[in-house]
Amino acid sequence: MECHCHNCKQEKISLWKEYGSIVLSAILLAAGFALRSFRVFDNLPSWSELSWFLIAYLPVAIPVMKEAWECLCRKDVFNEFTLMFIATIGAFYIGEYPEGVAVMLFYSLGELLQGKAVGQAQRSIRALLDVRPETATVVQEDGTRHTISPQQVHLNEIIEVKTGERVPLDGILLEDAASFNTAALTGESVPRTIHKDEEVLAGMITTEQPIHLRVCRPFEQSALSRILDLVQHAASRKAPAELFIRRFARIYTPIVTGLAVLIVLFPWIYSLTNEQFIFLFDEWLYRALIFLVISCPCALVISIPLSYFGGIGVASRQGILFKGGNYLDAITRINTVVFDKTGTLTVGSFCVQHCSPATDVSEETLIRLVASVEQNSTHPIARAIVTEAQTRNIQLTTAHEVKEIAGQGLKAIVDGDTVLIGNTHLLSSNGVACPGNTKTDNATSVICAVNGQYIGTLLLADTLKADAHAAIQELKALRIKNIQMLSGDKQSIVTSLAHTLGIKQAYGDLLPEGKVEHIESLRQNPTNHIAFVGDGINDAPVLALSDIGIAMGKVGSDAVIETADVVIQNDQPSKVATAIRIGRYTQHIAWQNIALALGIKLLVLMLGVVGIATLWEAVFADVGVALLAILNTIRIQRKQFDDTTKPNSHYHQETNH
Fold first, then answer.
1. Longest Cα separation, the chain
2. Which residues pair with 419 in a beta bridge?
3. Segment holding 22, helix H or strand E
4. Residue 296's closest CA among 643, 629, 634?
5. Tally: H helices and E strands in the chain
6. Active-site residue flag, 340
7. For all residues of the chain together, what is the average pLDDT?
8. What is the rounded distance in angstroms from the CA atom of residue 426 to the CA atom of residue 407?
9. Where are the domains of the chain?
10. Which fold has domain 348-464?
11. In what order do the strands lie in the sheet with 482-486?
12. Whole-angstrom distance between the N-terminal and C-terminal Cα of the chain?
């Protein structure tokens, strides 16, 4: 209970430090207005009114004066702190005490709220990604457990992660299988099952059982640490709008300071040559002060970077990592999207599409024989056939005298029978006649013969990802008409797949250098702004050559992080359209803020110069516009971008078909 009270006291002290000076100044300003209204100061010494408003001014002015002094020490003369200080001192000089206090009060309040908004954007990203546990439980050889910092855990040590806990380090799973929540890494809510000897990444949460891992990477090199570092440093790569505002502010601020001086100086010079013109110093100084307050560029300097930082945060929550605001901006100009096929639009692994046994042979018998011969092979086709047998709960038989015939297939003895597994060349060279329908342009054929008799064919092919159709349709909805597909696979397979997806241009039989040549030919047209979507490893040269390189999946791969400009962590091609939507919306908000700030400021500036606007309007044009821009920017973080992680049922049905 005592601890709770102590926390309350600490919280109250923190709140008072944060808001105390603003609250005190506001109370004194309101009281000063009341005393003025009831003419109390008329019955007091002449210095009493100045003293009252000076006391109201100091709580909010001292932090600003401190900032102004520090800037001056760094030889940064023209900054917003100096502008506010000059403007409020000028207001006191001409006797506008309440307005002087109000300018500094609302400016301080605006700075506080701006800081809160920036802090919230930063915290949202840290909360999203910095989910690394502070401790790890190491299991010793004698079974004892020690809880230490993840930084102290060595490679190949065994750690235990209890149900519901986050994995502190990358490691190899020692259990047969376990289910994990991978949302921190991929933004995907669907649990993922990982099997024995597969890699588990830091940040995942074990959902059903305690697990044991053999650590395979130190703390600093974990996938989550690299992702966190990537996003935190993304802010250093500025978008063109941010760079424009920074350059603009450096030139703009000294210019408007000089103009403010000229607003006083020119009428005075004119009055020297024209006796009919009555020069009132206080009136023109007031106009110059209004000009100074309005000219403060904080609305632009804060809201534009905040827009891009918010966009990076929103994309991260969707499982999309932008390496910087410049890429968030560049993706808005994309009008050509080129997909790699394998592992990008397709799953990247074979599966049995069709089983064609000969007459009087069952599918189970055909699959059992082929899988029995292939069960010790690491070839992707062999693994796909064995997986099919396991899915059907088919018991395999031990194969003997397994012999690989290069470029043709395998020969083995199963249950005393001679079994041939491979292509038509293997069977014809052994005198086995095959039916004419064993070949297909759209799949890989695995033909089986027993004791010189053909018994059937298995057709295997890569399968489309569940959201591949949705990915193409979403891009077309964004008016991206030039969508292409490249692959090293056979042209017939690529063409068939492209037709299924609705892609008009598809190119197969390409080596890596062929893909590079294709992208270079696209780049010869200056109107093409190209995004290439690939796996980030084999396609590294093409990713680097494109205007935007987008890597799919492979969360733990260094090559992906290093090569791509954008990393889509959950391996879903539909996220390409989501990334473009986020980029366009972020840019839209940023330019809205620029137009809002400059438009209102220019309007009030002109009104101030001709003597219509007061310091109150100037305060709105500065602090008010900054707050409006920040509120506009918050829309990015609250915007619900269409979630395409669940494929449209129509597309899903077509894929299954």
1. 123
2. 412, 450
3. helix 2-37
4. 629
5. 22, 22
6. yes
7. 81
8. 9
9. 136-219, 320-346+465-580, 348-464
10. Calcium-transporting ATPase, cytoplasmic domain N (3.40.1110)
11. 320-322, 566-568, 548-552, 530-534, 336-340, 482-486, 505-507
12. 64
Q: Please, which residues have CB within 8 angstroms of residue 626's CB and are 6 or more apart in sequence?
A: 110, 114, 298, 299, 302, 303, 597
Q: Is the pLDDT of residue 100 over 70?
A: yes
Select the highest-mean-pLDDT range: 4-18, 38-52, 604-618. Answer: 38-52
CB atoms within 10 A of CB 656: 9
- How far apart are alpha carbons 392 and 377 in whole angstroms? 19
319: confidence class by pLDDT, cuts 50, 70, 90: confident
What is residue 119's predicted lDDT score, i.e. its pLDDT?
A: 62
Residue among 296, 283, 292, 285 nearest 259 (CA): 292
CA distance 375 to 386: 6
Distance CA(439)–CA(521), nearest Å, equals 34
- H/E/C letters for each residue in 450-484? ECCEEEEEEEEEEEECCCHHHHHHHHHHCCCCEEE
Cβ atoms of residues 194 and 230 within 8 Å: no
**Alpha-carbon 253 to chain mean position:** 33
| pLDDT value at residue 411 | 93
Nearest alpha-carbon partner for 291 in 599, 595, 60, 621: 621
Q: Cα(402)–Cα(290) distance, rounded to whole angstroms?
A: 91
- What topology does CATH give the domain 136-219? 2.70.150
At the fourth CATH level, the homologous superfamily of domain 320-346+465-580 is HAD superfamily/HAD-like (3.40.50.1000)
Tokens 């991978």 belong to residue:
182
- For CA atoms 445, 451, 452, 454, the dihedral sign is negative
Per cent of the chain over pLDDT 90 is 27
Q: Residues with Cβ < 8 Å from 318, sequence gap 6 or more?
A: 187, 575, 578, 579, 582, 641, 643
Q: Strands 199-200, 453-464: parallel, antiparallel or unpaired by DSSP?
A: unpaired
> Amino acid identity of 196?
K
Contacts for 401-409 with beta carbons within 8 Å, 24 or more apart? 402/373, 402/376, 409/446
Of 308, 551, 459, 83, give the one whose Cα is nearest residue 543.
551
Task: Report the percent of the chain where pLDDT is more than 70.
Answer: 81
Mean pLDDT of 580-596: 90
Q: Among 490, 489, 511, 507, which residue's Cα sits nearest to residue 498?
A: 507
Distance CA 457, CA 427 (A): 12
Tell me the one-letter amino acid at 631: L
Q: Are 460 and 352 in contact (CB under 8 A)?
A: yes
pLDDT in tens, 472-528: 999 999 999 899 999 877 788 888 889 999 999 999 888 777 888 899 999 999 999
**What token pair was written down for 211?**
């697990």
Task: Kindly name the residue from 340, 462, 539, 622 that is annotated as catalytic.
Answer: 340
**Cα 656 from Cα 651, distance rounded (Å):** 9
User: What's the pLDDT score for residue 245?
Assistant: 59
Say whether pLDDT at 37 is over 50.
yes
Helix 298-317 and helix 97-129: axis angle, to 10°? 20
